[in-house]
Specification:
The structure holds 5 protein chains of 5 kinds. By secondary structure, chain A is of the alpha+beta class. Chain A is 26% helix and 10% strand. Chain A is elongated and about 90 Å long. Among the domains of chain C are: 89 residues, Roll (Ubiquitin-like (UB roll)); 97 residues, 2-Layer Sandwich (Alpha-Beta Plaits); 224 residues, Rossmann fold (3-Layer(aba) Sandwich), CATH 3.40.50.740. In chain C, 21% of the residues lie in helices and 15% in strands. Chain C is built from 15 helices and 23 strands. By secondary structure, chain D is mainly alpha-helical. Chain D has a single domain, classed as Cytochrome-c3 Hydrogenase, chain B (Orthogonal Bundle), CATH 1.10.645. A 3-stranded antiparallel β-sheet of chain D has the order 1-2-3. In chain D, α6 packs antiparallel against α7, α6 runs antiparallel to α13 and α7 runs antiparallel to α8. Chain E is α/β, with parallel strands linked by helices. Chain E has a single domain, classed as Beta Polymerase, domain 2 (2-Layer Sandwich). Helix content of chain E is 18%, strand content 25%. In chain E, the strands form 2 sheets. Chain E has a 5-stranded mixed β-sheet with strand order 1-2-5-4-3. Chain E is globular, with a radius of gyration of 21 Å. The chains are: A alpha+beta, B mainly alpha, C alpha/beta, D mainly alpha, E alpha/beta. The interface between A and D is large, with 68 and 74 residues. β1 of chain A pairs parallel with β4 of chain D.
């Protein structure tokens, strides 16, 4: 059911005479001009597809910012556990799936004598977790691939500029940020005591960044730590779970 | 709020123009009346008319250059508004009261100038040094000289002397414009050739051929007006346009006799001439849609190798041409400083009686510049609205369309003037032409052909009439 | 196909799942050839090891009715496997036999070098003479038996077994070293791929229990296949492991108060089909799927066990035994397993000139010029001696000794090499040099006399030997003592792979490649010559011994143009009687290199590829 | 280099007709357009031989943007190819993502859930609009009509906002996975899309008013860059460029995939095969796409967005976090990739510029053995010399614009 | 999909095909002898029953790592018929020693660039091609990158590469950069 969309405007007097169509064009631009001249610019960047009197949709970047939509792939973060250590167990899944090979991990082992009961459960942790943000292509596959919910791209940030390349190599101290996340299925939640919480198997169907179990929170100590984190990075930048 | 800002801005602009005009009149009057010369005053020494010196300074360097300079800003700011952007808004001056206030980006003019002046003045090694340096000068100088014959304000009495805002009022009048305008081609073609760059050469060739082609239409477009007012001198053309075509004198209380007639502006008498002249002059300025010599997406242009202030000269000469074109068109087709519709006589009478000649002149000059600025906006809007012609289409527009139309226009105009020297029949023809174009413009275009053919398709298949959707209906745009 | 071959880091030993995975059966799975079969078969190109001899097709004898069926092929057992006829030797194991016709029976506890336990139940198949499903590993094949390895019943049973095995398995893939070479993973994905139905809690048992110097145990991950127990009892003959408890409380452990300290304990890690037993040396150092494997030979002792070298980038991570019926079966000792470390550590990286304070890095031509200058003067005199190490490969020795004979004019060669050590009851030998026999053969073939190291010491002390050309930096006595002796030498040219006290004494130190960095052969103490493959190229100026010899010879004016170890062997190999008949190309292990998962190139800015960006691997472990 | 010699012989001997011309010898001018030139989208170098302003001979040199797409894909798993496909036609990345996935799914023999099919259609058409808006805007830009460009870009920007809400990125979407999609529609997204479409409709009207009937524009476009239907087929033109010749070939109609057969839309065709018709094709397709987006979003049923087969799709995160079964499947998929059975397939979708064909060969491992992409732009670009030789230099500009060459897909 | 076309060609040129396949995805294709490539392609283009006028593309497959890899290369031609709405896939196999296939540029002009592509990336020559140059790689490039034995890490920069030093500082940069 194709239709002929071609047309021949040269048969139209308006087109042949130059002027009418030119004037119509001028009318369009002048209408825009006048509308934008007399109407204040709406700086409400949330509504970018406005149809109001003023059409200017430019965002004056450093002063105004468009909010990142939920699920936007921003700068990585390593998700902390409640005790402030990374959730990451150095399984190398992200490094495996990264098409740009920008993730470098070295695994270490908690001492058997580690006083933390959680380390007894987890054994393994990343001694090095480095993301070369210059190499990163922000495809988000690492978030998909993480079996521990340990890496996320929900910071709503971009990589800040740096004067040398090594500044773009982000390691654990820089990556470990944002609110802590805890799942019922986490080993420390199951093993912390003999009265283990029931194993939740059929948690709601989740994809990246959605439907996560609410934060297991917080004792006084943890509360304090979380606040510190929040000062460093305003919590509003992080997406609601 | 925004409207207030706009009004303030307009007020500032008008105030500046008014002040500058008043200054020009006052200075001219003072020179004529009191400037010491050979120990005498000018009038006494028998050498009147030296006000052209101050006129030259204030009109050419003041008005033209200032407006051209600010047009560089306006081009960006206005185009931004046309295109739903913000435009320049960053440069601020770190002074008390100005801190953090970009004032609509007005300081960008200064930063632009600074940038132009401080950029590396680069010259390709293979370029011809002399001609390469000569290019921008030859492009810039004639443009300023053009303005010499344009009268900005009427002759009024200041300090007892008759002073007008015109640098020179030679007998050859408009011919000066034609003569000097054709000189600018040397600059561009030299620049294109001397750069020793194939793109620049193409640009230079395009520029020279385009400018030479449009000389003809440029001249012929004005012949009608010249015939109507039997003069080539611009003040006389303006004077002619102040006459009324129709309408009678009405006696009003306190204002006396007021002629509420339709003035004999060139636009009404010669709409075709106006179009031809405006198009041809536009082509002379080499701005879009006639910017094939530049053709930024094709050949980048004759000044591709220029940088710094040399490039700046090309640019500023372009803007100066815009101002001058606007001024000349105002003078010839929009009645110059003439307000029309009865205001002139009242105003003249009142202010002449009050012996405020400078005020009268300044008001008229302001009116003149308002008209010119509107034409400047028109040119800028055209530049940001229309696509570019193709090189050969420009030629065919000039030779095959504008030239025959101009010739036909001359013959018809001549005939009508011969038949009816009161110009009324000419004006009738003009109104008919304007009405015809406007009627065509305002008529809605027919719907595209295919929709009629495929009437059997459901409406939403074409996306024009989608069914009401809950989301779309509920969507509020704050 | 041996067990050790299966445990390869890449997917080469794991044929892709049969048929297309589909949720829409109508879409059709298998290719339908109108003419010949369409493109590639399931085994893929990297399944090079797997060799499938075509089933023999003798004439079909007439069927005999009634009673015990007459053998279709006398002397053989003829069965039908998934509709295909299989002719097997009597007593052949069903699991191994059905592979010949392309069927694949999954299993955990079966190992062809261990006794049959039949306790994992994964290999259950449907056979015609039993109403129930029978374990394939334990069931002898009877004439005329019809076996279904893939029937719905079998599939359902495999699913059920997988579900049982995973019931108590911890969610540990993320921290388990076995991930990527784990049979649970393979079989789950192939036979189960369903979600968990477990409602209760998993059993919790000891995690990270250190069993001995080599092995760490995670009892939660164990599937109680008892392969390790059987191995220690039957092969290593050091029964140090046992099963304890009963039913769901059953677990593997060492006997109370004992350690798993056998020299063969590392093999239990290899044969463990899951991640219960893990190697402490390799633990957490790399993920198995990043590792590439190249067939090689262990250089730990003169046994010369066939191995796989697992490497990533230009670093080696571990040895794994490679099946070799003649030498090491499927096993290797722990000492040999750890002997790889010298490949990564303390390597000579650059050409060095001068001794003591004059020592400086030099370019290769500079060093070669210097050597030629000095040696030309001494060539053919008593003052120039040559020291050869039995750690070098045959090709290295062929080229270097030929150079020594032809260019340096020596008639005898001193022998260095690693000091001897302990042997054991099974594989490990006291002689720690992998190629002593090869050196002997080559010296004989090149008419060179071999002299012991002690004579060299005397000769140096007496001042008879002024200059020495040493191939290999290993010495049989304390290196610092040797270094003192070598300090008396006027000129020492040393081709060494690792830094030691001796390398400090070399006027010209030429960095030598080790065996994983080049192709070549070793001859073990039994006179068995084995080819090994190159895993990765050497770094920077590092060259194999033979390449240095060739370069030096060219500097001496010899028109040698050998570009590879193969060229070297072709030239001089035939002169050695014992090596003359050796088929160098034919003896190459069939797998060139099993690629790791991510062999992506270096970044555009010239950085080395991803994972080992920041230097050599570190030593870690418990 | 025998072929080079032949070419030189083929050149016509210099014209020695008149004595006058012998004196007035003119040389052809050779100029280099690109690789960095405003008219050369991406980085294409064109060696143009000019006689005056007329192009006598044009030779395109491409490859400045070559990134080794095929070789890269051969060494990663099937899903890991997605970021590479993003960068083919980066103006309509989703269509590349989904087209590739469709081919892989065909090779596997998968049928994806219905909701995923609807969302795929909607996302594809959104990106078709994105692509066409860019093209139409670029035509305006490079012909000097800057306002039309910015109006189109404003619409494009809105689509980018919607796409970033949907996929998490504005340009390089990496959207979809083998077997379905990686994420569902965000909350309130559908309404925002409807509003966006309204706005785009308005903007398009303005672009239309500025360009379509403007005589300057029409003169630049009509009768320039003409290619005959025969040549267009010969060169392998597809998409709007082929339909501008009056040939009714649209993969969405010829062999409907996903739920395109349930969509109510039409295929515009032209007749002249010139720049103007190609421009009109895109303007019309924008309207058609708008209708498809509206329809597909309206009709999309609830349900799963990816197949529930853990050999193909990653298990739900809760299963991965909590059960060994989930984590095993997750590991196997990440380590080894989707086990695509051995075989080969040619599959195509209608991308913004034409038939986006994929010829995939699998050897049964988790990684592609061969990924051939039949980028529509490559074929169309190869026909450009034919379209501009004998025409004026300035005609090059609209021709290059209307074929909408995207360096990323042409140069792989 | 194009079984009909294959059988029509088979009728006209009984000896043209080496093999024909249909696969589980519903695709059908035929392997042609090199010498019958040009006649067959000309035929399928011009015969109104076939009418494969739309030239889609050409590519090659290096079958080095596939089990059946002799001859090594396979040049694949993709055609489409806009009247019958059918795809057609034809192949020609060519060995490693002298990889040369007759060019079809005189039949389909669009083959020009694709043949250059195949030459560039697989090193298969097309005899009779008017201008067989590399297309995406630069002229100085050695080797043919899509061959399976072309090493993935091979780099042939025209401009010498300068290693970037500061990246080698390694991790731990959040402290002192």
């Amino acid at each position: 059911m194709a239709y002929k969309a071609t047309k021949n405007p040269t048969t139209d007097l308006r087109e042949r005479l130059f002027l009418p169509e030119l004037l119509r064009g001028l009318a369009i631009t002048t209408r825009h001009f006048l509308r934008n001249l007399f109407n204040p610019r709406d700086t409400n960047v949330h509504v970018v597809d406005r149809k109001g009197p003023n059409l200017v949709s430019t965002v004056s970047y450093p002063e105004e910012k468009t909010p990142y939509p939920p699920g936007y792939r921003g700068l990585h973060r390593l998700v902390p556990r409640d005790d402030g250590k990374p959730r990451c167990v150095a399984c190398y899944m992200c490094a495996t799936i990264c098409p740009a090979q920008c993730i470098y991990i070295e695994a270490g082992e908690y001492e058997t004598t580690d006083p933390s009961s959680e380390s007894r459960v987890i054994e393994k942790y990343p001694t090095q977790f480095v993301i070369d943000e210059l190499r990163c292509i922000v495809c988000g596959l690492c978030v998909d691939a993480c079996p521990k919910d340990a890496i996320r791209m929900d910071t709503g940030l971009h990589t800040p500029s740096e004067y040398n390349r090594s500044g773009f190599v982000w390691d654990i101290p820089k990556l470990l940020q944002g609110p802590a996340v805890s799942h019922a299925s986490d080993p420390w939640n199951k093993r912390a005591s003999s009265a283990t919480p029931p194993h939740q198997h059929h948690e709601p169907h989740t994809r990246i960044g959605e439907g996560l179990v609410p934060l297991k929170l917080p004792t006084g100590e943890q509360q304090k730590r979380t606040e510190v984190t929040d000062q460093a990075i305003p919590v509003t930048r992080f997406l609601k779970d | 709020m925004k409207a207030l800002e706009v009004i303030i801005a307009i007020g500032v602009i008008l105030g500046a123009i008014f002040g500058l005009s008043a200054l020009a009149y006052a200075l001219g009057g003072w020179i004529e009346a009191g400037f010491p010369f050979f120990g005498h005053r000018l009038v006494e020494s028998g050498l009147p008319g030296w006000a052209w010196v101050s006129n030259m300074l204030i009109l050419v360097l003041g008005f033209v250059m200032l407006i051209a300079t600010f047009l560089t800003l306006a081009e960006r700011k206005w185009s931004a508004m046309i295109q739903d952007r913000i435009g320049p808004n960053r440069a601020t001056i770190d002074l008390p009261g100005l801190r953090g206030r970009p004032l609509g980006g007005v300081f960008h003019v200064a930063t632009d100038a600074l940038k132009m002046l401080t950029k590396e003045d680069f010259r390709p090694k293979v370029a011809d040094a002399l001609l390469f340096n000569l290019g921008p000068i030859l492009a810039f100088a004639p443009v300023l000289a053009l303005f010499a014959v344009v009268p900005v304000g009427p002759q009024v009495t200041v300090f007892g002397q008759r002073v007008g805002l015109q640098v020179a009022n030679p007998d050859f009048g408009m011919l000066w414009v034609f003569a000097i305008a054709s000189l600018a081609v040397y600059g561009t073609s030299l620049a294109g050739w001397a750069s020793n760059n194939k793109f620049a050469l193409l640009g230079g060739v395009r520029a020279s051929s385009q400018m030479i082609s449009y000389e003809v239409a440029l001249g012929l477009g004005l012949v009608g007006v010249m015939m109507a007012f039997s003069s080539v001198r611009l003040p006389e053309l303006i004077q002619g346009q102040t006459t009324h075509l129709w309408g009678g004198t009405v006696e009003l209380p306190r204002l006396g006799a007021v002629n509420l007639g339709i003035p004999a502006w060139g636009l009404f008498l010669q709409p075709v001439g106006f179009i031809v002249f405006f198009a041809a002059a536009f082509a002379e300025t080499k701005r879009a849609p006639f910017d094939v010599p530049e053709g930024e997406s094709e050949i980048i242009g004759y000044f591709v190798e220029y940088s710094g202030m040399k490039f700046g000269l090309f640019m500023i000469s372009e803007f100066a041409e815009v101002v001058i074109l606007a001024a000349i068109t105002t003078a010839i087709f929009l009645g110059g400083w003439n307000i029309g519709f009865g205001f002139d006589s009242t105003l003249t009478r009142a202010l002449t009686q009050a012996n405020l000649g400078w005020l009268l002149g300044a008001i008229y000059a302001t009116v003149f510049w308002i008209k010119a600025l509107l034409l400047c906006y028109l040119q800028l809007a055209i530049r940001w609205t229309f696509p570019r012609f193709r090189y050969d289409q420009i030629q065919s527009l000039g030779w095959k369309i504008l030239l025959p139309i101009a010739l036909a226009n001359i013959f018809i105009t001549g005939a009508l003037i011969l038949v009816d020297p009161s110009l009324r029949s000419l004006a009738v023809l003009g109104f008919v032409e304007i009405g015809f174009v406007l009627a065509l413009t305002l008529r809605r275009p027919e719907p595209a052909g295919h929709e009629a053919d495929d009437a059997h398709l459901p409406a939403d298949a074409h996306g024009h009439a989608p069914p009401p959707l809950p989301g779309a209906a509920a969507a509020s745009h704050h | 196909m041996s067990e050790s071959d299966r445990k390869k880091p890449s997917g080469d030993a794991q044929p892709s799942p049969p048929g297309a995975p589909t949720v829409h059966p109508a879409a059709g799975t298998g290719p339908t050839p109108t003419n010949p079969p369409p493109s590639p078969t399931a085994s893929g190109p990297r399944a090079g090891i797997e060799h499938q001899p075509p089933a023999a097709k003798p004439p079909i004898p007439p069927p005999t009715p009634g009673g015990k069926p007459t053998p279709k092929h006398p002397g053989f057992v003829t069965v039908t496997v998934d509709g295909k006829e299989l002719v097997a030797k009597p007593g052949e194991n069903m699991i191994d036999a059905v592979k010949k016709v392309g069927s694949d029976i999954p299993y955990y506890c079966y190992h062809h070098r261990l006794s049959i336990a039949a306790n994992c139940r994964m290999c259950l198949v449907e056979v015609s003479n039993s109403p129930k499903l029978v374990p394939a590993c334990q069931t002898p094949m009877a004439e005329g038996m019809v076996i279904h390895t893939n029937s719905p019943r079998v599939q359902e049973m495999q699913r059920a077994v997988m579900e049982f095995l995973l019931l108590n398995h911890p969610v540990d893939c993320a921290i388990c070293d076995q991930a990527g070479e784990c049979k649970l993973e393979d079989y789950y994905q192939r036979h189960d791929y369903r979600s968990s139905r477990l409602e209760g809690e998993k059993l919790m048992r000891a995690k990270r229990k250190v069993l001995g110097p080599t092995v760490v145990l995670d009892q939660e991950r164990c599937v109680q296949c008892t392969r390790c127990v059987r191995f220690m009892a039957e092969v290593a003959r050091e029964p140090q492991l046992g099963m304890f408890g009963r039913g769901s409380a059953e677990y593997i452990d060492t006997f109370p108060g004992k350690q798993l300290d056998s020299n063969y304990s590392g093999n239990t890690v290899d044969i463990c089909p899951v991640g219960a037993l893990l190697n402490r040396d390799f633990r957490f150092r790399a993920r198995s799927w990043f590792l590439s494997a190249a067939p090689s030979v262990c250089t730990g002792c003169s046994r010369g066990c066939s191995t796989f070298v697992d490497f990533m980038g230009q670093d080696m991570y571990r040895y794994r035994p490679r099946e070799n019926e003649q030498i090491n079966k499927s096993w290797m000792c722990d000492q040999g397993r750890l002997s790889y470390k010298y490949v990564n550590q303390h390597r000579v990286a650059a050409v060095m000139l001068g001794r003591g304070e004059d020592r400086r890095e030099a370019t290769v031509p500079e060093a070669l010029r210097s050597v030629a200058e000095q040696f030309k003067a001494l060539a053919g005199t008593e003052g120039l001696a040559v020291l050869a190490s039995p750690v070098a490969s045959n090709e290295d020795l062929l080229a270097t000794l030929s150079f020594a004979r032809d260019a340096l004019g020596v008639r005898s060669v001193f022998v260095s090499g690693r000091p001897g050590g302990a042997g054991d009851h099974y594989l490990m030998t006291p002689d720690k040099n992998p190629n002593r026999r090869g050196l002997e053969w080559i010296a004989r073939g090149l008419d060179l006399a071999l002299k012991p190291f002690s004579e060299l010491a005397q000769a140096i002390n007496s001042g008879k030997v002024k200059a020495l050309y040493a191939i290999g930096g290993e010495v049989p006595v304390d290196p610092s003592l040797v270094a003192q002796g070598f300090a008396r030498l006027e000129y020492l040219v040393l081709q060494a792979s690792n830094e030691s006290a001796i390398t400090a004494q070399a006027q010209v130190l030429l960095p030598a490649a080790v065996h994983v960095e080049d192709e070549g052969t070793f001859t073990n103490l039994d006179g068995i010559t084995q080819r090994f493959r190159r895993a990765y190229p050497p770094r920077a100026d590092v060259k194999p011994h033979w390449a240095w010899a060739v370069a030096l010879a060219r500097e001496f004016g010899f028109p040698w143009a050998h570009a590879s170890a193969r060229d070297v062997f072709r030239e001089w190999g035939p002169r050695v009687a014992e090596l003359a008949s050796f088929d160098w190309d034919g003896a190459a292990p069939p797998v060139k290199i099993a690629r790791g998962l991510n062999p992506l190139p270096t970044a555009a800015d010239g950085r080395p590829p991803g994972y080992r960006e920041f230097g050599p691997p570190r030593d870690r472990g418990i | 280099m025998a072929h080079a010699d032949e070419r030189e012989i083929e050149e016509p001997p210099p014209d020695e007709d008149s004595e006058l011309e012998a004196h007035l010898q003119t040389k052809r001018m050779m100029i280099n357009l690109g690789p960095s030139h405003p008219a050369m989208h991406g980085t294409v170098r064109m060696k143009v031989e000019l006689e005056g302003e007329t192009i006598v001979h044009a030779d395109l040199e491409i490859g400045f943007l070559h990134r080794g797409f095929q070789k890269s894909c051969e060494n990663v798993t099937w899903n890991q190819c997605l970021p590479y496909t993003d960068r083919l036609n980066y103006v309509s990345a989703i269509m590349n993502n989904l087209g590739f996935l469709k081919a892989v799914e065909k090779l596997v023999g998968l049928e994806i859930p219905e909701r995923a099919q609807y969302i795929r259609v909607a996302a594809s058409e959104l990106h078709r609009m994105h692509d066409h808006l860019t093209c139409v805007g670029a035509i305006g830009l490079e012909l000097g009509g800057f306002s039309a460009f910015l109006y189109a870009i404003e619409g494009r920007e809105l689509i980018m906002d919607r796409v970033s809400e949907l996929t998490g990125a504005r340009l390089t979407t990496t959207f979809g996975r083998v077997g379905g999609l990686n994420r569902d529609l965000p909350d309130g997204w559908v309404d925002r899309v409807y509003r966006t479409l309204d706005k785009i409709h308005e903007l398009l009207g303005e672009v239309d008013g500025l360009l379509t009937n403007n005589r300057i524009f029409v003169d630049r476009m009509r009768g320039t860059g003409v290619i005959t239907a025969q040549d267009a087929l010969d060169f392998g033109f597809t998409g709007p460029c082929l339909r501008a010749n009056g040939i009714n070939y649209d993969v969405r109609k010829a062999s409907p995939y996903w739920v395109y057969d349930r969509m109510n839309f039409d295929v515009p065709i032209g007749e002249n095969g010139d720049n103007y018709d190609r421009y009109l094709m895109r303007m019309e397709e924008l309207k058609q796409s708008e209708a498809i987006v509206r329809q597909s979003l309206k009709e999309a049923p609830p349900g799963p967005i990816i197949v529930d087969d853990w050999r193909i799709a990653l298990p739900p995160k809760a299963e991965v976090y909590g059960t060994i079964e989930g984590v095993i499947a997750h590991f196997k998929l990440v380590m080894e990739g989707v086990p695509v059975p051995p075989g080969e397939v040619y599959d195509c979708t209608e991308a913004a510029n034409g038939e986006l064909g994929w010829y995939l060969v699998s050897d049964g491992s988790g990684r592609p053995y061969k990924v051939h992409v039949r980028a529509p732009g490559f074929a169309i670009l190869s026909g450009v010399p034919r379209m501009i030789e004998g025409k004026m230099l300035a005609d090059l500009i609209p021709t290059f614009d209307t074929i909408n060459m995207i360096g990323g897909e042409v140069e792989q | 999909m194009s079984l009909r076309a294959l059988s029509l060609v088979q009728e006209k040129y009984p000896d043209a095909f080496v093999e024909q396949y249909t696969d589980r995805t519903g695709g059908a294709w035929g392997v042609l002898k090199a010498e019958s490539l040009r006649p067959v392609l000309a035929h399928v283009k011009d015969d109104p029953q076939l009418d494969f006028k739309l030239f889609l593309s050409i590519d090659a497959v290096d079958r080095l790592q596939l089990p059946d890899n002799d001859p090594r290369f396979e040049v694949v031609y993709f055609l489409y018929s806009v009247t019958h709405h059918e795809h057609l896939r034809l192949k020609v196999r060519v060995g490693e020693a002298t990889p040369e296939v007759p060019s079809v540029t005189s039949i389909f002009q669009g083959a020009n660039w694709w043949e250059r592509f195949v030459w560039d990336f697989y090193g298969i020559r097309f005899s009779g091609h008017p201008d067989l140059r590399r297309i995406l790689m630069y002229e100085e490039f050695e080797g043919h990158p899509l061959r399976k034995d072309y090493p993935l890490r091979e780099r042939q920069p025209l401009i010498p590469e300068r290693p970037i030093r500061d990246i080698f500082r390694g991790p731990g940069t959040s402290g002192t950069a």
